[in-house]
Known about the structure:
The complex is a heterodimer.
Chain A: H1 2-6, E1 18-29, E2 32-43, E3 47-51, H2 58-65, E4 73-78, E5 81-82, H3 87-96, E6 97-100, H4 112-122, H5 128-141, H6 157-169, E7 175-179, H7 187-202, E8 206-210, H8 214-220, E9 223-228, E10 231-236, H9 238-243, H10 248-258
Parallel strand pairs in A: 3-8, 3-9, 6-7, 7-8
Antiparallel strand pairs in A: 1-2, 1-4, 4-5, 9-10
Helix pairs in contact in A: 4-5, 4-6, 5-6, 6-7
Chain B: H1 21-29, H2 34-60, H3 68-73, H4 80-92, H5 100-118, H6 125-145, E1 147-148, E2 151-152, H7 164-190, H8 195-210, H9 213-227, H10 236-262, H11 265-273, H12 278-293, H13 295-308, E3 318-319, H14 320-328, H15 337-368
Antiparallel strand pairs in B: 1-2
Helix pairs in contact in B: 4-7, 4-14, 5-6, 7-8, 7-10, 7-13, 7-14, 8-10, 9-10, 10-12, 10-13, 11-12, 13-15, 14-15
Amino acid sequence: xxxxxxxxxxxxxxxxxxxxxxxxxxxxxxxxxxxxxxxxxxxxxxxxxxxxxxxxxxxxxxxxxxxxxxxxxxxxxxxxxxxxxxxxxxxxxxxxxxxxxxxxxxxxxxxxxxxxxxxxxxxxxxxxxxxxxxxxxxxxxxxxxxxxxxxxxxxxxxxxxxxxxxxxxxxxxxxxxxxxxxxxxxxxxxxxxxxxxxxxxxxxxxxxxxxxxxxxxxxxxxxxxxxxxxxxxxxxxxxxxxxxxxxxxxxxxxxxxxxx
Amino acid sequence: xxxxxxxxxxxxxxxxxxxxxxxxxxxxxxxxxxxxxxxxxxxxxxxxxxxxxxxxxxxxxxxxxxxxxxxxxxxxxxxxxxxxxxxxxxxxxxxxxxxxxxxxxxxxxxxxxxxxxxxxxxxxxxxxxxxxxxxxxxxxxxxxxxxxxxxxxxxxxxxxxxxxxxxxxxxxxxxxxxxxxxxxxxxxxxxxxxxxxxxxxxxxxxxxxxxxxxxxxxxxxxxxxxxxxxxxxxxxxxxxxxxxxxxxxxxxxxxxxxxxxxxxxxxxxxxxxxxxxxxxxxxxxxxxxxxxxxxxxxxxxxxxxxxxxxxxxxxxxxxxxxxxxxxxxxxxxxxxxxxxxxxxxxxxxxxxxxxxxxxxxxxxxxxxxxxxxx
Lengths: 260, 374
C-alpha cells in the first residue's frame, strides 16, 4: 500500500471555477451547536477528503450540501444556486449532486438496473431504453454488469456500494458526495469500492469524501480537511497534512489512526 | 518455508440418517421431548373427541332432501334442504325476482374482473384495474339500482330491497376499495410537516377509531338526516357505505403508518439525494415497500371489515346474516336443527371468503419477497 499511496494521481482536472461555496454556515440540533462558522470553497474538479473524530460534524456538513440537513445560518451555494427553503432550488441541486451513503441506501424492492434507471427516467424524463444503456455503461464501469437483474439483497456489501455509486453517476452529477462509503464494509470489500472511487477521481469528478481511508486521501485528494467539534481545524494538501500537521489536535488524531 | 501450503476446504458430508426422512421428522417435531410427546398425545385425543361428531352432524347423518318434515324427523343433524331451498334468497335478499338477472350480470362482471386482476399472466391488467375501479362501480350501480346520474336504465329497485350475500359484497367491496387509498392519504397526512394537515388527519383518525361501528351506523342512519337541509334525502345504503368506508379508512391509515415507520430513513435520503420529489418518492420508493411490509395488517383490516358488514343489520339492512336470521324465524321451518344449520352455513361462507383473502395475501407476500432487506 505504501508505495501506491505516495504515488499521486494528481490533479490536472482542478479548475478555478467554484463548484460549492459555504459561507459562515452554522447549524444546531436543538441546543447542540453542531457546525460552527464553516467556510469552504470547492473548485470544480477538486477532490477533498474530510476526516475527523465521530461527532465532529463532518457528515452533517456534507449532508447540508444537498440539504439532507438544513443549516440555520450562513450561505451554501452549489453551482451558484443558493440553498434556501425553495423546494425547486433544492431539487435542482439534488439532481446535480450525487451522494453515496455508509449503508448504501439502495432500494431493496427494485433490481440493480431499476435502481439505476429510476431517477433518470422519472426525474430527467429520459426514455427507458436510453436510461438502461447509460445504467449498463456505469455498471460496467463499477465492474458489475452481470448483476444488473439481481436485487440488492442478493449482493455483497462491496457490490451494493458500487451499485450505489453507479446509481448516482447515472444522473450525470457535477459533484459527488461520499459519506463514509467504506465504513460498513468488510476489509476485503473496501478495496473494490476504493478502486471505483479512485477511477472516478481520475476522471475529473468533483468529490467530497468523508472517510478514514488515509491511503485513499494521500492518493487522490487535492486537499484534506480535518474537523473537530463542528469546526474546520486544519486543511492542507495531503503531503503537508500528513507530513507536517500544524495543529495539536490534528497531530493527536493522526497519531491515533495511523499509529498502530 | 520451503513450500507454500494451499487451503482446501473439507468435503460436505450428508446429515446423520436419524434426522431426515419421515421417522426423523416425527422424532424432531412430535416426540422431541417429554413435554412435546405429552402435547402430541393430548392434541390427538382432542382431535378424536372433536372431529368425528362434527363430521357426523354436518355430513354423515345430515338431511339432504325433503322439507321441514324430513328435518324434524332427524333433529340431531344438519338440515341442508333449508339452505338449498332458500339459496336464492340468501344471495339476492328481497330483490325483485324478475330483476335478479341484473344482480347476476353485475356479479359475473365482478368475478371476471377480480380473477383477471388476481392472475398475473393475463394481459391488460392495468386497464382492467382502472376499469374495475372507475367504470365498474357505475355499471354495477346502474344494474343494481337501475339509474345513474338521474338516467334510468332499468326499473328502479330500492336499496331497502337489496340483501343477502350480494349486499354483503357491495358493502365489503366498497369499504375495501375506498378505505385503502383514503387510509394511505390519511397516513401520509399524519406524517406531514404541515401542522394543519397533520392535525386534520390525526383528528379524523382518532375520531373514527374512537367510535364503535354500531354507533357510526346508527348516527348515519338516524342523526345524519337531521343535519341535512330539508328535502335532501340520502339513500340509507349509501349512508351505511359511507360510514363503513370512513370507519375502515381510519384503521387502514394506522396500519399504513406502521408500514411507513418501518421503512429506514436511508430510503428517504437515498431517494432525495437522487432528486426525487415527495410524491414521486412516495409512489416509487416508500409506499411500495411500506405497503408490502404491512400486507398482513391490510388484509387483517379487510377481513375485519368484511365481517363487520353484518352490523348493518342494526339499521335494518339485511346482509347474508340478516337474511338467514329472518329465514330461521319462518314458522314453516321451526325445526330444532334449522338455526344451527343456518348459522353454520353463514359461518362457512364468511370463512371461505376470509380464508381466501388470507391465502391470496400470503401468496402476494411470497411473490414480493426480494431477498434480505438492508
